[in-house]
Structure formats: C-alpha cells, structure tokens
Amino acid sequence: MTDGTGERVPGVRRRMPYARRREQLLQVALEEFGRRGYHLTQMEHVAAAAQVSKALLYQHFTSKEELFAEVTEAIVAELTARLNEAVLAERGSPHGIRAMIRVLFDYATEEPDAWALVVRHLDKPDDVGVELRELRDRLGGAFADLLLRRRRADPKLSPAALAVNERRARLLVPLMYGSMLSMVSWWLEHPDTPRDRAEQMAIEFIWLGLDRLRTGERLPRE
Fold first, then answer.
1. What is the pTM of this model?
2. Distance between CA atoms of 149 and 132, rounded to whole angstroms?
3. Which terminus of the chain has fewer CB atoms gathered within 10 Å of its CB, N or C?
4. How many angstroms from the chain centroid is the CA of residue 79?
5. Mind listing the pLDDT tens digit for each residue in 7-28?
6. HTH tetR-type domain: from which residue to which, for each copy (predicted)?
7. At 3, phi and psi to the nearest 5?
8. Measured between alpha carbons, how far is 39 from 45 in angstroms, rounded to an integer?
9. Torsion of CA 77, 78, 83, 86, to 10 degrees
10. Which has the closest alpha carbon to 81: 107, 105, 59, 62?
11. Would you state the torsion angle of the CA atoms of residues 60, 64, 70, 75, taken in this order, to the nearest 10 degrees?
C-alpha cells in the first residue's frame, strides 16, 4: 500500500488476492495434514501455519472436512494422471508395473507432504473421505489390468479360467500396492540406498513373485 505519493507505507500488509490466498491455504493444509494426519489437524493449526485468522480460513473453507476433501482431491487428480500416462505408454505388463513404480518414487520425492498424507490415510478411506477411496480403487484397477493383460490376450484361455484369474488378481492387488507404498516409504527413510536399486527390488519382488503364482506354484497348506 502507498501513501498517495507512490511511497510504500511501512507495516501495512497488502491483501492477498482471493485465488492466491486459497492456493496458499491449500498448500499449508496439505503440509499440516501430511505431518499430523487428519484427526490431529485442527483448523487453528492450519490458520496459525498460514499466519491468518481462523475467521479468514473459514471464509474459504466451511469445515475441516471440506478442506481435507479439496486437498485430497488435488492429490488424487495429479497422481492418477501421472499413473495413467505412464501405464498407457507401456505395452508389456512388467514394463507397466515398472512405470508405476517409477511414478510413485517420483511423486514421493517431489511431493513429500502429499505422499505422507497418502501413506497415512490410503487404507482408511472410509474414515476420512471418498477421495482417497477413489485413489485406492484406481490404483487397484490399474494393477489388476496389468496383471490380467497377457491372460486376456490369450485365445486359448476359456471364460471360466479367465474368471478364476480375475478373482485371483483382485486378491493380489492389495498386496501389490501395499508392498510398493511400503518400499517407497522405506527408501525415503534410507536415502543412502540408491534409488535404482530400490526400484529394481520392487519390480522383481512383484513380478517374479507373480510369475511363480501364475505357473501354479503354491506352498503346502499346514
């Protein structure tokens, strides 16, 4: 703000445009939700971190639920777009899984607060909103599609056999995305481990293990 002569008046803060303020509040909320988790984060935490009043925060978001929903919606949109683009660029199933692993490593590195929120809440979508349930379902669907891609293209496979494979793939999906999320989080805590080594271990763990299951190998029941 100036005094009419073009000189800025000291101690007077300019009002941030609405859109920019909203973007700032969403970024601060992301950091707080990622650090504290949904239940421990309160609106006053977000307001204090953003250096605004609670009243101003409530002008933009009517509740913590609405604020969290907008934060997670943005995460879901970006991460699923990255995953879809990476998988569509690959034709082979192992290459598709490798591409998904690379996207997750990239995202965790570039967006640590968003990654922390996803890891903390992905398996509790019913507790914190539908947006993360959508991410979990999309992630699961992508994994299942990669698992079944070769089977669906096999003309010798009967509809009954394909149905068995479909059911088996759905059972494997939680193991796959759970192990990948855990691997990425472990690597973030152990930066001395080369990233390419961690990625390779993830792809080998998933794909070689799946190959043994696909050939019919099973452990004997006790």
1. 0.76
2. 25
3. C
4. 6
5. 444 444 567 898 999 999 999 9
6. 19-79
7. -95, 15
8. 12
9. 130
10. 107
11. 140
